[in-house]
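I'm stuck. Protein, please.
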Amino acid sequence: MRTTPSNRRHAWIRLAAILWLIGVTAPGGVPGAGPPDLTCSPDRTSIALGESVVMRAWVDAPPERVTRYAWDVRVGRVVGSGPEVRWDLATVRPGRYAAAVRVHGSGSVSEECLLRIIVRRDAAGRGALSPTPASPSPAPSPPGIRSRETGSAFLLSDRTEMTGYGLYSYLLFGSPPGAAVRERHLKALEAFVGLIPDIAELERYIPTRELNIAYVPLTTDPGRQATADRLFAHYDYARARSVLRLIPGGNREGPYIVSVLRPLGGTAGAAASPNPYLFQDLSTAPPHLVASWVKEFLNQAAQERFWEERSAERFALKLRVTVGVLGAALPEVKKALDTWIAWVR
């Protein structure tokens, strides 16, 4: 039989149909797609001695494609199975520890996702840490794995940022909110107050270059018993605008989270461009999603070297996966993720 261009074209079409039916497609195809995107996070990055922590894996894949979640820890024990488990650390000594998870499904295995936890000696104060004993030493994290913990500080109107940190993140509101926006701002502040240890306490145990300092601009110091309502009442909108002016766009609502390698300042000497930076726009996110979003960012930001060029984009992708799963029942969330979470070079 004589082969013609038309015959060859039809043969390729038939072959493509057969490959599709047996599940040989490019990653992202429907059947037999490549490994799913996976990210993971603890419900807290710092716990008191004798406590446990809840770990969650987030997968950008339908449930039928996932057959098993493989959790692995060197100390303590994992209680439960599936995407959400409890890591019982009741018998371990104070120190830093790591856990890992892989997802199996549809003939493929995801990349390993690592998360880190600090076990404190006691529970004094919000997120406080106590010195770890010199001996015996706790089981170390896997080689090359170090935490970049997130600590909080208030950026008061008469002060500038402290220097020497590994990453600077700012929780920013574009203007005083109306009633419709107020709840969204309060949810972001609640996550900030309830989750992040004070930076001064973390600095006693972790080098500053390994810390992500998260700033909230305030007009006055709220004191040790800060609440979301108190932070909201003393929020410094003028200082927030001085930072937001460095970011393209109007950015008049919020919350926004901007993360950079160096302080943005907001003064006359501030850099004209903060590039590169991670920009998160929560101004149209449903209020009930905001608290979980901020919490997951702060937990996932406690990772090693995520600000390197290649890993930074990967971090933004993983954050989109997490927020996408959190807002899976909301079609508008899936549609807007690329604009809500952007890595800008």
Notes: Helices lie at 5-22, 179-195, 199-202, 228-233, 237-244, 287-300, 309-326, 331-340.
